[in-house]
Amino acid sequence: MADTKYSWPTREEAQIIGSRRNRLDGMEKSTGAAKYTYDVNLKDQLIARALGSPHAHCTIASIDIKAAEQTPGVVHVEVLRKVGYEIKWQGDLIAVVAAESEAAAAEGVTNVKITYNEMDVFVQDAELELARKAGRTAPAGGKSVTQVEPGDDDDEDEFVEAEIQRLYDASPHKLEGYYGIDAITHCCLEPHGSTVQWKDGKLLAYLSTQNVSGTDEAFATDLDMTSDDVEVRCEYIGGGFGSKFAADYWGVAAARISKETGRPVKFMLSRDQELKNAGNRPSGYLKVRIGADNNGVVQVWDSQHWGTAGVRGGGISQSVIPYVIQPPNYRRKAIGIKTNNGQARAWRAPNHPQACAMTQTAIDDLARVMKKDAFDVFAANLGNVANGKGDVYLAEMKVAAEIIGWKDKYHLHGQGPSKGGVVEGMGLALHMWGGTANSSTCRLVIRSDGSVESSCGTQDLGTGTRTVCAMVLAETFGLDLDDVTVNIGSSKYPMSGASGGSTTVGAVSESHRRAAQDALQILFEKVAGQLSAKPEELVAVNGAIHVAGDKKRMISWKAACSRLGVQSIEVSASHKRGDASPLSNSGVCGVQMAEVAVDTETGVVKIKKFVAVQDQGLVISPKTCESQIYGAVIMGIAAALYEQRISDPATGAFVNAELSDYKLARLGDVGEIIVELYEPESERQRGVIGNGEPPAISPVAAVSNAICNALGVRVPVAPYTPQRVLEALQGRA
Amino acid sequence: MTESKRKVTHGGFHRRAFLKGSGAVAAATALQTEVASAVQQTTQVAKGRMTIDLEVNGKRQTLEVETRDTLLDVLRYQLDLTGAKPVSLDGSSGASTVLLDGKPIMASTALAVACDGKRVTTVEGLDDTVPAAFVAADAQQCGFCTPGFVVAVKAFLDKNPNASETAIREGLNGNICRCGTYSHVIQAAVSLVKGGSNG
Ligand code: FES
Fold first, then answer.
1. pLDDT the model gives residue A5
2. Which end of chain A is more exposed for a tag (fewer CB within 10 A), N or C?
C-alpha cells in the first residue's frame, strides 16, 4: 500500500474525531461487569498470599514452612528467598502460600516461620549529611553550561566555579532556596498480580499489566517454554501509572505454582505489599542559588540536589534540572542516596514532576523577592525554555490566566487580605513532555456483512485507548462506534508497545488509521466501477461510499461490503517508534494555575480552583483526553497536599503502607478544576501526541507557588501538610 | 471553553466548614511510633463452617461459609459477583461498598456470618440509572474504584435526593479513586439530582 497517503481529516471533514463520545467500556466498568485480573475466577483456582519481610534490612537466618504446609486448606508453599539472602527493604516477599481460600492462604502465611539477622537501616533520604555519614551517597552526574567558555589553559571546574560566582555576584537580584518533594507510591487500586492457568504445556496468564505484548517472554523463560505457548491477557487493569511493565517475580511465581499443582492460581499483592514493593516515585531535595536581571530573567542557576530511588540509589535525573526554564548559565549536580526502601519504578512523567516542584518554585520565589507578579516573571523567562516553545507557553499562560481570573485576583506574595486567618493565593507552573507514538500493529478485517473488526496487542489503562481505536476506525469508514469491533488486551494479537511515556494514543492512532486507510482503499477499488468513478474519487461518510462532491453516485456501506462475498478484506498495518509520520508527533507544553486558601491557624490548605491548559496535537477523543488531564491534576493535588511515604528512621519500616494511613485526596478535596484543551490549527496539524504524563507534572509546583503567594513564605517540601505549613509560618521550615 | 467545565460557587469561609472533608487534618503525622512487626494482617477468627441465608440482588441464597470469611470473599469467590473490589481490607477505600438491608457497608470488613438473614445489594443488582450517569460524565478511568463509587452515590442520593453540589462534595468522601475521577463523579451525582431520578 505504498501509494496510500496517510492523513487525518480536517476539522471540518471530521465526523467522529474531535467529537465528545462516551468511553466504549464505561458501562462495563460502572456496572461491575468488567473483569479485571483480580476478578477472573478460574475453576478450582488456588488463592496465593505472600509473606513479606517485617524488617527493612536483614539476612534470612532460617526458614521453616512445615506448619504452613500443614495448615488446613493450604495446597502449596513456595519459598522465594533462600537462607542467607539479604533483604533490603521492608515487605520484600519471602514465601508464597497457595490455598483453597483467601482465609486459608492468609492463615498459612502466618505459619511460615522465618528468623532474621537484623542489619543497620537508612531511610532518611532528605538528610544529605546523615546519608554521607552513613556512606549511602554516590554522585549522580551533573552539567555546567556557561556563555563564556573556558580558555584552553583553564581548568574547567575552576573556570566554571569562578564564572558562576561572577555571574551571581553581578546579578541585581539574587535568591537562595531549598525545595523538596517526598517519595510517593503508585498505589494502584488493583494491586499487582496475576491469575494464571498452566495446562497441557501452555500458560494462560491474566496479568494486571501495561505491557500485554511484552510480558509473555518472562513467563516463557521461567517455565522453560516458548512465548508462543504463553498468552498474556489484560482486558481491564486497575491502574498502573508506570509500575506495571513487567511480569515481576510474583507473577512468574504464580505460574510456577500453577504448573506444580496443576491448578489455576490467583496471586495478588496485599495492600501493604503493593505499597512497599510494587512501585514508588523517587524523592528529591534541592539547594539552589540564582541570579536574575532587572526584568526577572534568570541569568545564572547553581544547584545541587539529592534524593533516593530506593535500594539502588539514584534519584531525580540531573538532566531535567533546571526544568523548562533553562537559563543561559547553569551548573547542576546530583547525588543519589541508597536507602532501605523498595526500588522506584517509572511514575507518570519520570523525573519531571519532581524537577518542576524543585525548580519552578525558585522562579516563583524570585517573583516574591523582586515583588513582582509571578506571571510576568515566568513570561520574562520564556526566551530561555528548554524546548524552544516560548510562544506556545505564553499563549497557554494567557488562556489559563483568563480562565482563573489571574489579573483580577492576583496579589503580590503575602499581600492578600486575611479573612479570619484564611489567606488566598495563586501560583503557576510550566511543563514539557515528548509523547512520541510507540510501535504498534493493527490487524483489520472487513467482512461481507459489513462488519469491521480490529485486533491489536495494546491495552487500555483507563486512558480511553479502546475508545480511540474505535473512533479512528469509525471515522475512516464513515461508520459509527457501534459498527466496529475493537479487540485489545491479548499477547496473541499483533504486537503493540507498552503503555508508558504517553506513547499509546499515538501508537494505536497510527496503526488503526493506517490499517483502516489501507482496507478502505481495497474496498474503493472493488466498488469504483459500479459508481463509474476512480477509487481515489470515493469517500466513505455516514454509512455510505460515494463520489466526492456527488452524493447521488453512492452505495451503502453494507451493499459495498456485500460485494466482497467470501473474500473478506484483511490487512495489517504498522507504525515503528521513531519513524516520521504525518499522523503523529511529539513534544508538548502545558501550563497550570492553582488558587488556594490557607488557614494560617491550622495550616490546612484547600484547593479553590485549578486550571490546566494542555496541548497534545490533534485530539481524537476530547472527552477521554480531558479525563486524563483531570485525573493527572487530582493525582498532583494528592502529591502536593497529602501523599508521602513515611519511613521510620529507627527500623526502616514503611509505617503508613495502608490506605487508612496513606493519605490520598478525596472527592471533597479537589476544588473546582477546569481543563482546557489547547488545539489551535497549528497544534492540530502536528498529528496525535500522548497526554498521559504532561498534565501530571505541574500540579505540585503550581500548588506550592499558590501557597507561597498566599502566605508570603515558602513551604519548602511537598506534601504541604498542615504541620509543614505551620512550621514555615513559624520560620522553622 | 469546553462543555465539561463546571462552575462552583464558593461561599464565605467558616473554619469548621473549611476543615470538613480535608484529609490533611487526620494526616499521617500521628504514625511515627509504629513498629515494624505487624506484617500480616490476618484476623484470627474462630474457624468452622456455617450455613447462612442471604438475599443477594433479590435472589435467596443458602450458602455454606467459613465463619472467618468476609462478605466480600463470599460475594467474589462463591457467587462470582466481582463488582465490589478488594482494595483495602480495612474498608478505607470504599471499593467494596455494597448495600446491606439498603445501607452502605464495606463488604471487606463484614463477616459473612454476620449478614445471615439479611439483604445484600451489590453493584450488579442496581438498575442502570447511576451507571449511565457515570458513563455520561466519564466518571471512570481504570474503573477499579467505580463500582464502589456507584453504590456509594446510589446510597447517598437515596438518602439525600435533593443534595446540593456542596452536600455532594461533603458527603462522598468514603471512596478513593487513584486515577482522579472525582470531578466527574461530582458531575454524575449532580446530574442525577437534576434529573430527578432519585425520588
Ligand atoms: S478510575 Fe481508577 S481508581 Fe478510580
1. 84
2. N
Residue A596 lies in a domain: yes
- Domain shared by A85 and A217, yes or no: yes
Considering chain B, what percentage of its residues have pLDDT values greater than 70?
74
DSSP E strands: which ranges in B74-149?
97-100, 103-106, 118-121
pLDDT(A27) > 60: yes
**Domain end point (choices A230, A246, A268):** A268
ipTM: 0.97
Q: Does residue B36 belong to the interface with chain A, where contact is any CB pair within 8 Å? A: yes
Helices A622-641 and B182-195, interaxial angle, to 10°? 120
Q: Which domain holds residue A626?
A: 350-435+586-729
How would DSSP label each residue in A95-121? EEEEESSHHHHHHHHHT-EEEEEE---
Residues in chain B: 199
Q: Is residue A148 part of a domain?
A: no
The helix (H) or strand (E) run that includes residue A635 is: helix A622-641
How many domains are contained in chain A? Answer: 3
Contact call for A101 and B176, based on CB within 8 A: no
Question: Residue A56 has which C-alpha cell?
Answer: 527493612
Contacts of B36 in chain A (CB under 8 A): 54-56, 90, 648, 651-653
**Are both A571 and A591 inside the same structural domain?**
no
Compute the distance between CA of residue A219 and CA of residue A224 in angstroms, rounded to an integer.
Answer: 8
Contact B134 A644 (CB under 8 A): no
Q: Summarize the confidence of residues A164-189 as an average pLDDT.
A: 98
**Are A614 and A602 in a shared domain?**
yes
Taking 80 as the threshold, does the pLDDT of residue B14 lie above it?
no
**Rounded-to-10 torsion of CA A153, A158, A163, A168:** -170
Has residue A717 been placed in a domain?
yes
Is a pLDDT exceeding 50 seen at residue A583? yes
Tell me, yes or no, whether A480 and A594 share the same domain: no
